[in-house]
């Protein structure tokens, strides 16, 4: 496609100069470009297709970057990037050295706030708006939040404060009836009830127009009419929860009707109060496969545009986890599954169908998920909370206070542990080990292979007490030694009489084994200690390590609070006098790149291990 109009857009000023018919063509071109780019690079497709008209209307109506737009999560910001001077770089999105798949202040002045996790936009935008108020800046601040993000408590904390703000603060509720998995809970039902009354905004406007024309004669009459007006308005259209929180509600508005969108945005700009504009969109709009199955195309790898089929669909850790949990649930009626709006991503689709009564999707509410699961556990059930490592961070307080302190037997299935690749710094699973290492009484497994995951999950459920976790990476298995079976505690491979010991855990064992083979081929004697249970460390494994002159620990996680630090301390207790060296993620945030390139850059791939030991 030639992208006749899109290729000419260098800033939002160019959007403002277009005619109405050109705006429609621009939206069509943007959709074509989104499908083309994501089919090659992977990324978030459904959410971006759904907000094309909304994003164009925002840049048509507001004066960015003076006016600030804060995207919740930020996975729907691809159109925004194309309209703000980054069209020529959009083919690099999610590639190493290219554009981020999320808003980044360091990337553009048009990105008002970094994002990556849900429910943050209202709080962030309110902070920006308050700062403007304090400095005499009269520009607008807009938070764009999806209905899925309204299942997160932080959104309500933000709204609770936002209702007290003065004008020029707008919340746009992008209601596409989906987060990642289908929305759940009372808010989803509530928004549905509002959507089923499209007359709401029309009647509200007509009522206010008529009442505003009632002539006033004297102060007593004015007083009566003022209060009567409020009574009449209350009778004619009911107040929403948003009105109760102090945000004037407008909507619902068709999120794919450009003229209606622009008119609505211009209307709410005139409000003297903080506003919530309810915009209804269709996730996956314009690409039939994404419209039919928006969850699968929410975050997707490369795919065939014509057929919609993924380029690669090999078995992965998430699917293996889901199948094993179904097997365990069939044998024990106490086994339950909990997810925070990630049923598809965490491999729980089959479980949700087979064991409906024991499947709980709590929405984008990781804090609630942990406390809820703790309640299940303390009442005799065996809950497994399946969660991406990056999202587990949000529930740290609950892990300590509600799970661990009460010795609740809750199992964390930590998906996407370690480097995740192209989603970048906001989604790297590099912090869970350090987090869990600081919590007393937690058991943590980090297997390398599918059978290790299955055995670890079984042991975590039925052998452990208190809080237990099984962490595993994104994708599939790596290189495996011939006839190798993964043990629950630790394994030893190679030359036990060597002077050098290589220690690691998780998928890095595949890299370590390749390094072992490389070194052996060069005549170097090396032994490999593979850990599976990384908390608590088996004292026998540490005692074994103490017999080597040199111990090299490679860890796919943060150095601070690492397993390596724990082993170092335990070796000190044994008066270890040899050399102990660690390669881990130092004091940085790891940027987006392929997993392969990220591991190499961090010195954690087989080649880097080989060089280090040589």
Polypeptide structure, described:
By secondary structure, the protein is α/β, with parallel strands linked by helices. It folds into three domains: 6-197 and 244-292, Thiamin diphosphate (ThDP)-binding fold, Pyr/PP domains (Rossmann fold, 3-Layer(aba) Sandwich), CATH 3.40.50.970; 317-471, Rossmann fold (3-Layer(aba) Sandwich), CATH 3.40.50.970; 490-613, Rossmann fold (3-Layer(aba) Sandwich), CATH 3.40.50.920. The strands form three sheets. Strands 7-6-8-9-11-10-15 form a seven-stranded mixed sheet, sandwiched between helices. A five-stranded parallel sheet has the order 1-2-3-5-4, sandwiched between helices.
Helix content: 40-55%
Structural class: alpha/beta
What is the tally of beta strands? 17
Do you know the CATH topology of the largest domain? Rossmann fold
Shape: globular
Low-confidence stretches: 221-238
User: What spatial order of strands do you see in the largest sheet?
Assistant: 7-6-8-9-11-10-15
Compact overview of the structure:
By secondary structure, the chain is α/β, with parallel strands linked by helices. It is globular, with a radius of gyration of 27 Å.
Furnish the topology, listing elements before pairings:
Layout: H1 12-16, H2 20-41, H3 46-50, H4 52-61, E1 68-71, H5 78-86, H6 121-135, E2 141-146, H7 153-162, E3 169-175, H8 186-195, H9 199-212, H10 218-236, H11 241-244, E4 248-254, H12 258-268, E5 275-280, H13 288-292, H14 317-331, E6 335-339, H15 349-354, E7 359-361, H16 366-378, E8 382-388, H17 389-392, H18 396-404, E9 411-415, H19 432-437, E10 443-445, H20 450-462, E11 468-471, E12 490-494, E13 500-505, H21 508-521, E14 526-531, E15 533-535, H22 539-545, E16 550-558, H23 563-573, E17 579-585, H24 595-601, H25 606-613
Parallel strand pairs: 1-2, 2-3, 3-5, 4-5, 6-7, 6-8, 8-9, 9-11, 10-11, 13-14, 13-16, 16-17
Antiparallel strand pairs: 10-15, 12-14
Helix pairs in contact: 4-12, 6-7, 14-20, 16-18, 21-25
């Amino acid at each position: 496609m030639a992208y006749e109009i899109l290729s000419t857009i260098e800033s939002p000023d160019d959007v403002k100069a277009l005619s109405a018919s050109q705006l429609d063509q621009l939206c069509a071109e943007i959709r074509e470009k989104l499908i083309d780019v994501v089919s090659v690079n992977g990324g978030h497709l459904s959410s971006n297709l759904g907000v094309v008209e909304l994003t164009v209307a925002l840049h048509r109506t507001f004066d960015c970057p003076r006016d600030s737009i804060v995207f919740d999560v930020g996975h729907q910001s691809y159109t925004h990037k194309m309209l703000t001077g980054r069209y020529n770089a959009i083919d690099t999105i999610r590639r190493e050295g290219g554009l981020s798949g999320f808003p980044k202040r360091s990337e553009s002045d048009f990105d008002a706030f970094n994002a990556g996790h849900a429910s943050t936009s209202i709080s962030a935008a309110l902070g920006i708006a308050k700062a403007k108020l304090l400095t005499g800046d009269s520009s607008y601040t807009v938070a764009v939040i999806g209905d899925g993000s309204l299942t997160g408590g932080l959104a309500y904390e933000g709204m609770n404060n936002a209702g007290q703000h003065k004008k020029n603060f707008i919340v746009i509720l992008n209601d596409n009836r989906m987060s990642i998995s289908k929305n759940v809970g009372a808010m989803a039902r509530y928004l549905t009830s509002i959507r089923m009354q499209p007359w709401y905004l029309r009647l509200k406007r007509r009522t206010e127009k008529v009442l505003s024309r009632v002539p006033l004669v004297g102060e007593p009459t004015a007083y009566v009419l003022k209060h009567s007006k409020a009574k009449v308005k209350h009778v004619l259209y009911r107040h929403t929860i948003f009105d109760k929180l102090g945000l004037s509600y407008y909507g619902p508005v068709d999120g794919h009707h450009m003229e209606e969108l622009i008119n609505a945005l211009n209307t709410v700009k005139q409000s003297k109060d903080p506003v919530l504009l309810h915009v209804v969109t269709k996730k996956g709009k314009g690409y039939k496969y994404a419209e039919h199955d928006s969850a699968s195309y929410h975050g997707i790898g490369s795919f065939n545009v014509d057929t919609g089929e993924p380029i690669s669909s090999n078995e992965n850790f998430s699917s293996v986890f889901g199948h094993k949990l179904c097997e365990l649930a069939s044998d024990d009626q106490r086994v339950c599954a909990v997810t925070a709006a990630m049923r598809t991503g965490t491999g729980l689709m089959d479980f949700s169908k087979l064991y409906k009564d024991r499947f709980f999707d709590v929405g984008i509410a990781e804090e609630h998920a942990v406390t809820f699961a703790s309640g299940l556990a303390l009442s005799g059930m065996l809950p497994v909370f399946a969660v991406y490592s990056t999202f587990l961070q949000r529930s740290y307080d609950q892990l300590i206070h509600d799970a661990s302190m009460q010795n609740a037997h809750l199992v964390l299935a930590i998906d996407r542990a370690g480097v995740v690749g192209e989603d970048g710094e906001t989604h790297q699973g590099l912090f869970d080990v350090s987090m869990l290492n600081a919590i007393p009484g937690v058991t943590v497994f980090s297997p390398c292979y599918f059978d290790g995951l299955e055995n670890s999950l079984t042991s975590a459920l039925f052998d452990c007490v208190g809080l237990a976790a099984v962490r595993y990476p994104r994708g599939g298995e790596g290189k495996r030694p011939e006839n190798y079976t993964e043990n629950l505690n630790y394994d030893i491979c190679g030359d036990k009489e060597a002077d050098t010991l290589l220690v690691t855990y998780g998928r890095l064992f595949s890299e370590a084994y390749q390094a072992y083979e490389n070194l052996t081929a060069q005549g170097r004697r090396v032994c490999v200690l593979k850990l599976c249970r990384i908390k608590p460390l088996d004292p026998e494994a540490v005692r074994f390590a103490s017999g080597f002159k040199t111990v090299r620990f490679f860890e796919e996680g943060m150095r601070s609070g690492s397993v390596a630090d724990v082993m170092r301390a335990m070796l000190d207790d044994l008066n270890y006098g040899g050399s102990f060296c660690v390669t881990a993620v130092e004091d940085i945030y790891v940027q987006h790149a392929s997993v392969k390139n990220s591991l190499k850059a961090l010195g954690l791939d087989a080649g880097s291990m080989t060089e280090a030991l040589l």
